[in-house]
């Protein structure tokens, strides 16, 4: 392996064993390389193993077989080279914005003055200056997710993992957050892997869209997104954008229907 491609996924399989019930094969033979600084989105039917793969990449659960590596280093547990942003903001309600953003640095033992300086930089980057001493309950849903992204970026990971980060937001706020995320990514150039059910979100944000089959999740197609950067929300009204969304939807429509038929308790 070389270090010019940050994330290497090789032959990853995942089967969940259930007591007294049939096992569930979630992922089958996943091979994927995500280059340094690339933004990749994964779409597919519900239950196709997308979030499972993200948790394996983060080291939160093991693969049944296969390997994950960041650069030349194999992944076996969570580490500072990866940071996850979940669908729910998961902020600590008793801590202020600046304390939440600096929380990972505090766990790592960084001195208070240094971590607050770093936290302020990412609060500024996320467009939250002036809210440093607010608590999560004083913020809108979109603002809380900005704090969540800022907290993930503050630990300076090589890879940012996003698991449906805007799913809980209303449609208007979601679009604004997509644009904000692109603005932050444009300045940071982190490697990003995004899980989303929204095809238009995947096309708007990413350099490449990976389409998963229904369970067990397999890579059905990889679609390059050749829309010019930087992008703003107006690109969603362009013919090229609409054609890409339609192409990807046609790829997954059958898989979505199949995934619904495979749903289990």
CATH architecture of the largest domain: 3-Layer(aba) Sandwich
Distance between the termini: 40 Å
Number of helices: 8
Instruction: Please give the largest β-sheet.
Output: 6 strands, mixed
Low-confidence stretches: none
For CATH, the homologous superfamily of the largest domain is named as P-loop containing nucleotide triphosphate hydrolases
Order of strands in the sheet with most strands: 6-7-8-3-9-10
How much strand? 15-25%
What count of structural domains? Answer: 2
Structural class: alpha/beta
How would you sum up the global shape? globular
Order of helices and strands: EEEHEEEHHHHEHEHEEH
Strand segment count:
10
Pfam families: ABC_tran (PF00005)
InterPro entries: AAA+_ATPase, ABC_transporter-like_ATP-bd, ABC_transporter-like_CS, ABC_transporter_ATP-bind, P-loop_NTPase
Keywords: ATP-binding, Nucleotide-binding, Transport
Organism: Ancylobacter defluvii
């Amino acid at each position: 392996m070389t270090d010019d491609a940050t994330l290497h996924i090789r032959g990853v399989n995942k089967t969940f064993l259930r007591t007294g019930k049939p096992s569930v094969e979630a992922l089958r033979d996943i091979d994927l390389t995500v280059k340094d600084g690339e933004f990749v989105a994964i779409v597919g039917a519900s239950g196709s193993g997308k979030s499972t793969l993200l948790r394996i990449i983060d080291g939160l659960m093991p693969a049944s077989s296969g390997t994950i590596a960041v650069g030349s280093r194999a992944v076996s547990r969570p580490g500072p080279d990866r940071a996850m942003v979940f669908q729910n903001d998961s902020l600590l309600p008793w801590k202020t914005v600046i304390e939440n953003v600096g929380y990972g640095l505090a766990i790592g033992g960084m001195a208070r003055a240094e971590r607050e300086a770093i936290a302020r930089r990412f609060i500024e980057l996320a467009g939250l200056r002036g809210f440093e001493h607010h608590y999560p309950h004083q913020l809108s849903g979109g603002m809380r997710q900005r704090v969540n992204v800022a907290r993930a970026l503050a630990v300076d990971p090589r890879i940012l993992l996003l698991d449906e980060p805007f799913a809980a937001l209303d449609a208007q706020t979601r679009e604004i957050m997509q644009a904000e995320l692109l603005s932050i990514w444009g300045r940071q150039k982190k490697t990003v892997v995004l899980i989303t059910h929204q095809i238009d979100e995947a096309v708007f944000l990413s350099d490449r869209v990976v389409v998963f089959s229904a369970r067990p999740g397999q890579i059905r197609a990889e679609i390059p997104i050749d829309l010019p950067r930087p992008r703003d929300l107006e690109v969603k009204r362009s013919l090229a954008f609409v054609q890409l969304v339609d192409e990807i939807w046609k790829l997954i429509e059958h898989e979505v229907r199949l995934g619904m038929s495979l749903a289990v308790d």
